[in-house]
Amino acid sequence: MRVKKSGIYNTLINWRDFRQKIIAEGLVVGIFAGAIAALYRFIIKEADLFREQIYHILRSSGYAVILVWFVFLLVAAYILGMMVKKEPLVSGSGIPQVKGVLSGQMHMKWLRVIIYKFVGGIIALGAGLSLGREGPSVQLGAAAGQGVSRMLGRLKVEEKYLITCGASAGLSAAFSAPLAGAMFALEELHKNFSPLVLVPAMVASMIAGFISHQFFGQVPVFNFGRLNPLPLKYYFYVLILGIITGAFGVAFNLALVKTQEGFKKLQFVMPELKPAIPITVAGILGFILPQVLGGGNALINSLDRMKYSASFIMILLAVKFLFTMVSYGSGVPGGIFLPLLVIGALTGNLYGSLIVNVLHLNPAYVNNFIVLAMAGYFSAIVKAPITGGILITEMTGSFVHLLALTLISITSYLTADLLKGEPVYDILLERMLAGNKSEKNIPGAGRKILMEIPVCVGSELDGKKIKDVEWDPHCLLVGINRGTSEIIPRGNTRIYPGDYLVVLADEGRAVTIRKKLLDMTEITEK
What we know:
With about 525 residues, the chain is mainly alpha-helical. About 65% of the residues lie in helices and about 5% in strands. The protein contains 18 helices and 4 strands. A 4-stranded antiparallel sheet has the order 1-4-2-3, with helices on both faces. A hairpin with a 2-residue loop joins strand 2 and strand 3 (about 485). Helix 6 (about 155-175) packs parallel to helix 8 (about 195-215). The radius of gyration is 24 Å and the shape is globular. The termini are far apart. Residues about 435-445 have low confidence and may be disordered.
């Protein structure tokens, strides 16, 4: 007698099977996502060099040639506007979109996203907009992960883990930072440290890092030479810098939101023409202040070599900040990682120079403040201090400042928290979802999905028995992962902090159910 296998049966069986094969699939995703992100990074690097050569020629050319160049830039702007109009999911960083896909609030067409994001990002950064490659790399990697899942015919329960693997691989390849790639998946995308996420994401990130090193060599992204350990007697200055970067980080997020609102209010400008605003600004800056064009790798690396005056650093800081706002606010494909790190580095340089001149600090430690300010700025804006510390360590190739990095990351994070600052990608995701259709219209009704929810210390479920919990009637608790043990839930089974609840739900209701469960499992004030 043949038994018809229901969707619930297939989902549960798939859950058990995929735990054993997800690592191998993470490796495959790492290869594809790493290759795409590394190629993207390589082309952008070549585009930056080509743009520098173009402006070098234009400075000695006549007005007619310069006019032709601006016409070319405006055509590029129109192409960008049309691409974003046809595929809105490729606008901006891409990280909020990945978070939306993982939470079930957005739906992604992986091949379309890869093509539009890849081409659009190259056009935007090639034109000199103050945007980063990391956000697009994360989205490209996530789309590659979804593509692998679809080609292998995997169910939704697996697909989200493969998307996470791809996102980790994308960040790893963008910055040659495999540890930060894996940590980013845990701290930012999933906001929990599940082994189910960690191990495959780490494999994918490692493979992508290997591919990146093949392309760009085993050298750090930021080369400050040998950094001397900062003496403990200077840690008070680190604390002050943490407060400054924390406040500046909150201002950065507020300015980003206000700029987006400003572009939306330009009703008299067609949406496909709005990218012409930042691209025209980029064309002008290419002649008067080329240092602020593009992501900013070269500018950070030049801080140690060029020894800019304090007044010029202030000009660079102000212009880079405003240009980043205009570039990102227009909605073209491009991230904010690199620009925010540049703004942080300039802040640290200015702060270090001030201490040297006023308090006669040893000038050898100015580079330390540059590095520390980048971590502080990242922690305040993204609200992911662990990822920020690891990322800066890998990008500078130096481990001498780990203690100081920890101090400034925590200080900056707490300062932003006290000022009611929210994580930038959460803010951007909420803005994208505002005005979206209700969840009832989201496809997936009838299909089943499994979610893994971590239980925090002090949460509503901490110490409760399963029978005493008022569960959503549209979900079913099918398992509890406690360390390396898998517990079959019964009425008298008690839930402890650190447990991961495995919950079966209808895909169409997944967003609402997940939110209710997180309200019960996250820390609450008593």
